[in-house]
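INTERNAL AUDIT FORM
Audit reference: QA-55
Scope: verify that the stored structure record matches its stored sequence.
Auditor: D.O.
Record contents follow.
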Amino acid sequence: MSYDGFKLFKVRIDRGVAFVTIDNPPMNLLNMQMIMEFAMLANTVKNDDNVRVIVFDSADPDFFIAHFDVKGLVVMPDEAAPKKTSLEGTGHMINELYRTMPKVSIAKVEGIVRGGGFEVIQSFDMIFGEKGKAIFAQPEIGVGIIPGGGGTIRIPREIGRRRAMEVVLGGHDFPAETAELYGLINRALPPDKLTLYVENLAYRIATFPLESIALAKKSVLAGVDLPLEEALLEEQYLFGQSVALPASKARMNMFLNAEGQSRETEATSNTLLEEQEENPFSIFEELED
């Protein structure tokens, strides 16, 4: 797969992880070019068996994505378009590509991400922010509009109605620490731990079988999207599929042969990712070659 056709993204592939750096000076405004590149990247990665995880960061340490370019909004028609009957041809469809694709997407946010930029990463599987610096916000109400990239829908599903009202109607900034407390992001990490944690997590996930990652993500989404009984039946079905995978059989046998199921190993095998200097699951990489 080629990743040379991007103008606003710098893409580097390493050990199953696509590291994508957003670079659209002067402050990474979200515009139609960037939206198209998000779509192109999603479609490329989705079909690339050499990539299991995508990690997004920014070339600008102060701005991950500032927000959607307001110049593109003021020229919209004075009369609202009729309500659509499908997501086809909308920005929502692009965001849903990341939410539903059989690959894992992670945002590593060191600076500010507001408005449409925040809505893009809400569709990602995980968000990590730099403690003391990262900022998250939906400020649209301040210029008289509402979030239009999924913010009013995804946020209440993640953090509940009352806190979503505070985020959307308050329109103010949420530092990483509060965003973590509210459930807007996974974790707020100090500067010296953020990159180490995210990279170790990404490399760790990338050592797992491609099919297993896809099944696990599909099952988690079932838990979010389906009624409980239907979701549990889906999990049972997907579990059966995962156990039957040749890669899973090989890994389980390797685990048993290495005496992984022992008191000593079980007590020490999963140390904190921010404390690891290298990927503890590298032993399995040879099984994926």
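Auditor finding: record pair retrieved intact. Residues 108 and 198 are 7 Å apart (CA to CA).
Action required: none
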